[in-house]
Design goal:
The chain has 516 residues and is mainly α. It is built from 19 helices and no strands. The protein has a single domain, classed as Up-down Bundle (Amino acid/polyamine transporter I), CATH 1.20.1740. α1 packs parallel to α17, α4 runs antiparallel to α5 and α9 packs across α10. The longest helix has 39 residues. The model has no long low-confidence stretch (mean pLDDT 86).
């Protein structure tokens, strides 16, 4: 990649927006938050219906692609051979897309729903802490963390992989719209605008995941070790984390990302086993999660299309719509990274690894962690809801881990897992962002180191500013405002991408009839 020129039309506007946001946040943080909060509320009030339809459409397309003849198409052509072993591929795919959020969310989200801490159950008239609230807490968590969100990764990764490897298109997110608009969409101005908006969306979403880790670390320091989360502590966490994921990203996929992904995946498995065996809730977990799956499927039509009329704003605005826009922001650029891993595999295999298997993992993860936490809450063993009310969302995970056997050992181990988890997600995102900012970049190429460093540092600084000065009552209010605001802009691209994918695989005769 030596000598590769920067795509100024992509890098300059996207990077400038991040810098401007950081500068405004430093000078007048309330002005920055007020702007994004206004956009956040406007998006929820006017576009909730659109987000729900987008997510439902993508799930339907993934189902059809997986079980139709199109699923037999091999990425890279009939003679293409996979570059990575199955479990390494799955580990990179899984850990490259979830970050540290799933660790804390598996406790805070089910407990918040169970006790309706911010009014999440009001719209459905369910009594907090009741038997139905238990099923709702787990079932709704399954809904927002499994099949629906991972469909974004599934559809983006196979579309990019097919166009770049099979159709020899350049690495650009405008490439996703070629089946719909033809080569005119690859004109410099249009292509640069599309890539710049998508890069900005992922950069801000990445700010959110780093902000989550900063918040989790600060909560651990305060709740577990009685250390006040000062700005210096947050800045130190940001600095250490940024250095780690940059080192991983700079070392490339083979050395850094693959190593951290496999390490992270093993930690996930070990921690899951520890909670299942030592949490004293195994029978409750198996029974409740099974019933919760049935409850989820029973309510699937309503939940899939509810715009707040039934569930209310406390649930839809602060959880569902935020989650959908967050995944929407991550998916296109993350799809560039996932696409390079799919080489040599069929579309069906790719969807199984990038969509179905992570969904199953999420259901298992929330069943074990969320199920155990719920059991402790309803049995009176640990009042996690009070901990969240008094100390914030991020304190819930530390209260939970603190009640497990060998807590003094498990707490730093869990914190380390979160660090590795975020770093694994961040390094592939920074790599993909940097590749899209590079001219004549082919899928799988390593971007110039200077671009990775610039993006990594800018994202780290903005995350620090938002968490240090705009955390809000839920711990990351400023981040939520920002992600939903940019997601509303990105939704236009996602709709066009859906139409382009349908045309490419199901309408164009050359694509639908020729098995590659």
């Amino acid at each position: 990649m030596k000598g590769k020129a920067i795509r100024k039309g992509v890098f300059i506007p996207a990077f400038s927006c991040v810098l401007i946001a950081g500068a405004v946040g430093l000078i007048n943080n309330q002005l920055l938050i007020s702007f994004f909060k206004g956009a956040f509320e406007l998006a929820y009030q006017n576009l909730s219906w659109l987000y729900q339809w987008i997510v439902l459409a993508i799930v339907i397309i993934c189902v059809i692609l997986t079980f139709s003849k199109v699923g037999n198409i091999r990425i890279g052509g009939p003679d293409a051979k996979p570059k990575y072993g199955f479990w390494s591929w799955f580990a990179m795919s899984l850990t490259g897309g979830i970050g540290a959020s799933i660790v804390s969310s598996s406790i805070s989200q089910p407990i918040t729903f169970l006790q309706s801490i911010w009014g999440e159950l009001d719209g459905y008239g369910i009594e907090p802490g009741s038997s139905e609230a238990v099923l709702f807490a787990l079932g709704r968590s399954f809904h927002e963390w499994s099949v629906f969100p991972y469909a974004f990764y599934g559809i983006c990764s196979i579309s990019i992989a097919y166009l770049c490897f099979n159709k020899k298109q350049p690495v650009s997110l405008s490439t996703l719209l070629v089946p719909l608009f033809g080569d005119k969409v690859k004109k410099r101005g249009i292509s640069s605008l599309i890539d710049a908006v998508n890069i900005l969306a992922l950069a801000l979403a990445l700010v959110g995941t780093l902000g989550t880790f900063i918040g989790l670390t600060s909560a651990c320091a305060k709740y577990v070790y009685n250390i006040q989360p000062t700005h210096i502590l947050m800045l130190t966490v940001m600095g250490v984390t940024t250095i780690l994921y940059l080192l991983s990203s700079l070392s490339g996929v083979e050395k850094g990302i693959k190593f951290f992904a496999n390490l992270n995946f093993r930690f996930y498995m070990v921690l899951t086993a520890i909670v299942l065996v030592l949490g004293g809730s195994a029978a409750f977990i198996f029974n409740t999660s099974t019933s919760a799956i049935g409850y989820w499927l029973q309510n699937l039509p309503l939940w899939s299309l509810d715009t707040g009329t039934s569930g209310g704003s406390a649930l839809l605005q602060w959880w569902t719509i935020y989650n959908w826009t967050f995944w929407m922001a991550f998916a296109p650029v993350t799809g560039v990274f996932l696409a390079q891993l799919t080489y040599g595999h069929t579309i069906r295999e790719s969807l199984i690894v990038n969509w179905l298997m992570p969904s199953v993992f999420a259901i298992i993860w929330f069943s074990v962690f969320g199920g155990c936490a719920i059991n402790w809450q309803v049995s009176g063993f640990l009042d996690i809801a009070s901990v969240i009310n008094e100390n914030g969302t991020y304190a819930g995970i530390w209260a939970f881990i603190g009640k497990l056997p060998f807590a003094q050992i498990l707490i730093p181990i869990t914190l380390f897992i979160m660090l590795i988890s975020f770093s694994t997600s961040a390094d592939n995102s920074v790599s993909a962002i940097s590749a899209l900012c590079t001219q004549n970049s082919k899928i799988g190429d390593e971007a110039p180191s200077i671009l990775k460093i610039l993006w990594g540092v800018a994202i780290g600084v903005l995350a620090y500013l938002l968490m240090a000065y705009a955390a809000g009552t839920k711990g990351n209010d400023g981040v939520r405002y920002m992600v939903v605001a940019i997601g509303s802009v990105l939704s236009i691209f996602i709709i066009l991408m859906i139409a382009s994918t349908v045309k490419m695989f199901f309408v164009d005769k050359k694509t639908s009839q020729k098995q590659e």
